[in-house]
Amino acid sequence: MIGPLTVDEAREQINLRLREIDELWAAVQVEAPEVRRPTGRLTEMELQVARAAAWSTLSFPEIARERWVSVNTVRSQIKSAYGKLGIHRRADLRSALLDAERIPGDPQPEAAA
């Protein structure tokens, strides 16, 4: 067992541990992902497909059958909506759509020309 430390020895031990903690902390630091803001307005079809994906448990093939379009069309519309909403996962879709509807100037469906 180690005997009592002097004040200087205790400070030295504390500083040593703090340097170790700093080194460990620096090793695990990960840059925070860039927060993406919405970049554009959703088309009416993108909005319909995004809402169907967000508020239902339907798969993309089921959404496609419901809308009489191909699965690739649904995937394309979802991918475009994700990009415009600044998200990457279906799990984030519902909150992104709700946020977009609450914040003026953020993605709303484009008016039909």
Automatic annotation (TrEMBL):
Keywords: DNA-binding, Transcription, Transcription regulation
UniProt key word Transcription: yes
Transmembrane segments: none
DNA-binding is among the record's keywords: yes
Database matches in InterPro entries: Sig_transdc_resp-reg_C-effctor (IPR016032), Tscrpt_reg_LuxR_C (IPR000792), WH-like_DNA-bd_sf (IPR036388)
Residue span, HTH luxR-type domain: 39-97
Full protein name: Helix-turn-helix transcriptional regulator
Source species of the chain: Dactylosporangium roseum
